[in-house]
Write a structure and sequence with these properties.
InterPro entries: Rossmann-like_a/b/a_fold, Universal_stress_UspA, UspA. By secondary structure, this protein is of the alpha/beta class. The chain contains six helices and five strands, in the order βαβααβαβααβ. It is globular, with a radius of gyration of 17 Å.
Length: 160
């Protein structure tokens, strides 16, 4: 009887921090294990709703929302293709990449449940306490609400 490997869920957006977290995860948990990888890999990207991006309501939103939808969809496609490229470059082909529309905090926590993830990996934008509180950090939220262990990968600061 073959035992199924636990799932590692990596949440990505279109930032360099997210890309770094994915590459770091692949280097530390996948590429060095060859075919004996300890996890199945699922990568998720939350495509925000246009209304959450622009924060508009009323007559003006009717004109802006279709434009925002196109941009958001284009970004999601770009993120998905970038993830596939990174995985291909690391010789990983058995990766599930999914784009789900909604608030990233909810999308990620729901994906943890859907895939019964053993561990969740997120990148950190490196915001301070005040900025994190104002911007409602996805990694902060998921670290506290996801029903699995969470690992937040920080991109090293560049030296000047």
């Amino acid at each position: 009887m073959v035992q199924e490997r636990p799932t590692m869920l990596v949440a990505v957006d279109d930032s360099a921090h997210s890309e770094y977290a994915l590459e770091w995860t692949l280097d530390h948990f996948f590429t060095s294990f060859g075919s004996n990888r300890p996890f199945q890999l699922v990568v998720i990207h939350a495509r925000p709703l246009p209304s959450s991006v622009i924060g508009l309501t009323g007559p003006a939103s009717a004109e802006v929302v279709p434009i925002m939808k196109v941009g958001i969809k284009k970004t999601a496609t770009m993120v998905k293709e970038k993830v596939k490229e990174i995985c291909r470059n690391k010789s990983l082909s058995d990766v599930r990449v999914e784009v789900v529309e909604g608030d990233p905090r909810n999308v990620v926590c729901e994906a943890v449940e859907k895939y019964h993830a053993a561990i969740l990996v997120l990148g950190s934008h490196g915001y301070g306490t005040v900025r994190r509180a104002i911007l409602s950090s996805v990694s902060d939220y998921c670290a506290h609400h996801a029903h699995c262990s969470a690992m937040i990968v920080k991109k090293p600061k560049q030296e000047n």
